[in-house]
Structures are given as structure tokens and as C-alpha cells.
Amino acid sequence: GELPMRIPLRLTRTRRFAPLASRRGLTIVELLIAVFLGSALMLMMGDVLMKLISNFQGSSARNQVESDARNALATMTRFLQQGKASSTIISTPSPAAPPYSRIDFTLASDTSTLYAFYYSNSTLQMQVTKGASVFAPQTLAEHVTALNFTGDSMDPGYVNITLRLDVPIGRGRM
User: Fold this and answer.
1) Distance (Å, rounded) from C-alpha 115 to C-alpha 106?
2) Of the candidates 99, 104, 76, which has an alpha carbon nearest to the alpha carbon of residue 89?
3) What are 101-119's pLDDT values in tens digits?
4) Cβ-based neighbour number of residue 4 at 10 Å
């Protein structure tokens, strides 16, 4: 017979790279890529952090304004409910104040004490006058942009209160 044909094999030598654990240091390219990726990540995180801080400040300011408005309305409502309807006078305290932004009245149980709620320099003030003694005004709310009292001609015991508080929100301001 025939002899089997032999095909010569070519052996090539392959170069092996050293395992990562045995290498020393980083190449300049690897270092530059790491610095670039780290910087990009820090920039993105900084932007996210600034947005979170801004949202927190806005939420905090909004909550404070809502709380101030609720407290001021509760105080005015409590005193007005005890007021004598026939003693109620709604007026405009000064040309610089919003129209109908002052209400004066006495309590039904104590007609010698005069109570007043009014707008003054972006604040809501409460003034108490007992006889000849005028007590210092008490600030019920700040950042007031609108205050308006309206009455009902058919029911003098009914008073509608419109109160608006606004706070500027932004970087460096609250």
C-alpha cells in the first residue's frame, strides 16, 4: 500500500502578555482615561447635587409660606368669628397698600377693645387697641403680596379674606 501522507505542521510561537497582577503601574493612556472618566462623573454628580439642593430649598420655602399663611388665616378667623358684625370696617390703610387691605372690628364680648388686621410693607399686621392703650403691632406673616377683605352686603357677619404670600426662590436667595 500507500503510505499515509503527512502534512507538515507549522508551529508558531505566540506572545503572551503578563497577567494584570504582575504588571507594574499604569500606562499614560490608562491614566488619562481614568482621569477623564472620573472628571465626567464628578461633573454629573455636581449637577445632580445642585438640582437636589435647589429643589430642597424650593420645597422648604413653599412649606414655610404655606404654614405662615395657614397660621395667619387661623388667627384672623378666630378673632373675626368673635367679632361684632356691626362694628366691622373694611378700608384701604394708605395709597401704597392694596385696596381693602385693612379690617377693624370689636369683639362681641368686649366692645372697648378694637382689633385691626392690615397690610404694611409686605407684612400682615395685627393691632390691638384697648381703651386709650395702643399695643405694638404684631406681625402675623411676611412676604405678603396680596391682602384683601370683602364683606357681604346681605350678611354683614360674612367676611371673605384673600391672602397671598410669595417668596423668591433661587441661588443665594430664600
Assistant:
1) 6
2) 104
3) 999 999 888 889 999 999 9
4) 6
